[in-house]
Amino acid sequence: MRTIIKIATILSVITVFALNAQAQSVEAPTVLDVTPYLIEPTTTTTIVPATFKHGDCSWVAPIALSVGWEKHQLPRLINIISRESGCCPRRIGGSVVDKDCNFVKMATMSHPSDSGLLQINGVHWKQDHAQYAGLVCKQMKVCSQEPLLNPVTNLAAGRLIFDVVGWKAWTLSQP
Q1: Domain spans of the chain?
Q2: How far is 50 from 161, CA to CA, in rounded Å?
Q3: Which of the chain's termini has less CB crowding within 10 Å, N or C?
Q4: CA 63 to CA 153: how far, in whole Å?
Q5: Which residues contact 131 (CB under 8 A, 6 or more apart)?
């Protein structure tokens, strides 16, 4: 959008300049080459695969980078995602999935608020939870589980959580 505004501004200035030049002279107006002043638009498209395979995290890195994770964090991040969800973005805590990341059954109901790739726990997205005061809900306006089953939203929420508490959000508790 800013690129379009810049181009429109440049074209307006050129038009005024050309009209003023034409009014002051009877000579043919000078054609200005504005090409050097144009800024090429840059667009970033995040591509999320249509199908997922349990254990295949090959598609995660570009999305993670697009939402603010840093390149040096990717190995640990992908290791956590593999451990937490098997790289199945719609996985809910306690669920069993097949090789294509399709829900099979609930093995346990001990963590039903854990959501998506990073298994983001309800302590981070439930608005009324005391521990993190609904961090994801307040900062991202994601106050329910369903949006966190989207890999882009999940990785962005994970980045927010990481910025506040670091890797400890995904540290396994010691027996």
Answers
A1: 2-37, 60-170
A2: 27
A3: C
A4: 10
A5: 123
How far does Cα 33 stand from its chain's mean position?
38
Indicate if the pLDDT at residue 43 is higher than 70: no
Question: pTM for this one?
Answer: 0.69
How far is the C-alpha of 132 from the C-alpha of 104, rounded, in Å? 31
Residue in the structure block whose two tokens are 């570009």 = 62
Query: What does the pLDDT look like over 95-139, one tens digit per residue?
Result: 999 999 999 998 877 777 889 999 998 776 767 766 666 788 888
Distance separating alpha carbons of residues 77 and 118, to the nearest angstrom: 9
Write down the pLDDT at residue 15: 45
DSSP alpha helix (H) spans, the chain: 2-24, 60-66, 74-85, 122-125, 135-140, 151-165
CB 114 within 8 A of CB 134: no
Q: pLDDT at position 8, please?
A: 43
108, with CB counted inside 10 A (0-12, 13-18, 19+), is exposed
Residue 131 DSSP one-character state: T
